Amino acid sequence: MTDRDDWGERLQTDRPHSARVWDYLLGGKNHYLVDSQSGDLILRNFPEFAAIARVQRSFLVRAVRFMTRDAGIRQFLDIGTGLPTANNTHEVAQGIAPESRVVYVDNDPIVLAHADALLRSTPEGKCAYLDADVRDPQKILDQAAHTLDFDQPIGLMLLNIMGQVSDEEQPERIVAELIDALPRGSYVALSDGTATNEQLKAAVEAYNAQSVNTYHLRSPEHIGSFLRGLRLIEPGLVRSADWRPDPDSADITREQGHAVAAVGLKG
């Protein structure tokens, strides 16, 4: 956890924050007027953006379910978790294996203010919450080691977070440092929006012009390169909705498919 004395300054309620805008797009209630206005601006430029957000959230559920049920993972490090909503990582994992341990990482003050909602672990398992930035992977790893055993496989969740890191901030180096710290048998789930639609790019540019955070759309190939060296689990790097969809999953339109996802195994 973190010192709350500076939360008022960090909230910056006069400018949109990514976690709060995402919460608005997912139909949540933990945001301010400036965030909903920014969300509406995105939707005016690209009406399917909220559907992409929901598709990304559904991928989280399927990826955690796969790691827990099929791969036997019992530890998760979820970086850039965002505001609590339905089917958080610990709820999915502990619903299958109650002894699962989950460490959430975020640096958005309103997310920190809602950490108690995330920390309701099963008695058999454990949840922890870190106030840290993905750009400081060593701090994350050092603090996560108080809850997770880095001698045992871990599921690393990097969902819609690397897009918040600019190319100048070397996202490849950050991901590599995180993966290097994982033991063999660990898995990495990655997803991000793609620069495959002009309207979407215009919507993100409009958002970046007014937000505290900026988001960087990349090509599917660039996003996939973050997992270089891992063995991708079938079906590999695909549209987020196409990664092992549930039988009753609704079809998505072409406009809702501008995000990719993959799960990789560190062998």
In short:
Helix content is 37%, strand content 15%. With 267 residues, it is of the alpha/beta class.
Description of the structure:
This protein is of the alpha/beta class and 267 residues long. It is 37% helix and 15% strand. The chain is built from eleven helices and eight strands. It has helices spanning 7-11, 18-25, 33-45, 49-70, 89-96, 109-113, 115-118, 137-144, 171-180, 198-208, 220-225; strands at 75-79, 101-106, 126-131, 155-159, 187-193, 231-232, 238-239, 259-265. Strands 1, 2, 3, 4, 5, 6, 7 and 8 form an eight-stranded mixed beta sheet that branches. Helix 9 links the parallel strand 4 (155-159) and strand 5. The longest helix has 22 residues, at 49-70.
Q: Give the amount of beta strand, in percent.
A: 5-15%
- Secondary-structure element series: HHHHEHEHHEHEHEHHEEE
Major beta sheet summary: 8 strands, mixed
* Structure annotation, total helices: 11
- Radius of gyration (Å): 17 Å
**Mean pLDDT over the residues:** 87
Query: How far is it from the N-terminal to the C-terminal residue, by CA?
Result: 32 Å
Would you identify the regions where 5 or more consecutive residues have pLDDT less than 50?
none
Estimated structural class:
alpha/beta
Shape: globular
Secondary structure: helix percent:
25-40%
> Using DSSP, what is the number of strands?
8
